[in-house]
Please model this.
Amino acid sequence: MELLYEAATIHRLHHDPNTVQVSTLLSIKTGGCSEDCGYCPQAARYHTNVEGNNLMTVQQVKAQALRAKSGGSSRVCMGAAWRNVKDGEEFDQVLEMVRTINKLDMEVCCTLGMITENQAKRLAEAGLYAYNHNLDSSEDYYKEVISTRGFEDRLQTIDNVRKTNVTVCSGGIIGMGEKIEDRAGMLVALSTLNPQPESTPINALVAVEGTPLENQEPIAIWDMIRMVATTRIVLPETQVRLSAGRTQMTKEGQALCFFAGANSIFAGDKLLTTPNPDVDEDMELFRALGLTPQKPFTKKTQPQTVEASDSEYESLGEKPKWTRPNHKIERNELAKHKHKTLK
Ligand code: SF4
Model:
């Protein structure tokens, strides 16, 4: 109760407690990812029910963005299941999506994996508002979940984004079997970034069949509330987002999270590939709690969009050497092996 009270007090000092930022997450390229993130059904090596698709067209993305806007979203976050961005046609198409959504006067966020400084600058120039790159867990526990890249790569990408005026969205997942020290470690890593991220998603693991973490028990709501409250205290200015796992939470549980300082949610019936509450249900909850959706560009002015023909940057065709530690994580190996056997 003391923690809640302190978090709610800090929340009121830095934010309007009655507005909540609403984002829509759009999977613009699903599945077939080469990485081995233990929580992710989009990793090609695990046997899950996710059906992959190619990169969406700009027109498809525009139609979805307009739908999201009419449903009350102020931000569209586009996710592609890539290890890192590769210069070329597909990245050019993503840049065009960014231009298109920014022109709809919505905040545009992308989560595309690791990016170089030049790629960050090209996204910024197209009108990107935020780049999402989660730290996922503490540096120690990260090694128990992912073997195909290192924690330092995450920090490097965030650093590359910071060389532009694009804001940083970075958070993590609880319920992956980590210790409380790992949750604290992740918050230390996030809160000592300078500047701190403008947005921090807190996800509760959705254990998907076929992934290495399929047997993890769902976390108790109290863990989520405590995590949100602690995040609010150490990241006072940041928008703290309730992300994956909201379908497992009661309305009362979500209300306590809002009280503890959460002021952002993902709307829409799907979060990339996992379920999410219906938009109408969310709006009903907002009405009951006296909350209203935050207007776009409340925290920072809208970036300008530079057309591709006027760009001052070009595709460099870079081949950066992101790390590949490839240490053995037993449960990841088992899930991969199960995949092979089932094939
Ligand atoms: S979380 Fe992202 S990088 Fe990791 S396997 Fe899933 S899509 Fe790939």
